[in-house]
Amino acid sequence: MREDWMVADIFLSNISISSNPNNEPVSIHGSSDHLRCIGIGTDAAVFQSIDVPAYAFKMYANDKMEKIQIEKKVYELLGDSPYFSTCFGFKDNYLVLNFEEGINLYDCLVQGIPIPKQVIKDIDDAREYARQKGLNPRDIHLKNVLLQNGRAKIIDVSEYVQPGNDFRWEHLKKGYDRYYHLIEGKPIPLKIIETIRKRYNQRSNYSAAFEEFIGNNYKFLTALRK
């Protein structure tokens, strides 16, 4: 197998990642002119190399390294699928993935870019595909899905070996079906989205009913219509 992505390793070695409490995005330490950060999550940050731009390098926080082998195994089980990226290799602190074009659904809301119904169907189909491979597709949220030419591409599968249902996708799908038509094509203020995101992540009961969350945050949700 080709490993031309190894040319980026020397530049990635100048960077380290640390996690933050309360499910907040990781912090990045160090930099390189040969890399650009294309995504920041709660466990890892993703970089693209200007030297080998066909790859994305998902670098995990120092206390999350065990997830590298787990996620690598998940990609092996998923195999070749239009719904997920491809893993080409790994090092001690990062995975090597196919670089995926597109904008995540979070930024679609911020910028007012319409999210077609096909995206919702694609995610449902992707979850069924993952289940058929013996996996448990969970932790699907706005930043983990890219919009690619009107279709969905899921870019984080690290929790697919964990048990249980976190209900993230079920709640997002209900929100889309019931309320998205009110805000479609309208840029949503970042402050409002972040307030809702943080309140959702701070729920004491992660299986709390969708209706309960809506009721507790009604004033923020109605502000989206303005």
Automatic annotation (TrEMBL):
GO terms for molecular function: protein serine/threonine kinase activity. Keywords: Kinase, Serine/threonine-protein kinase, Transferase. This is Serine/threonine protein kinase.
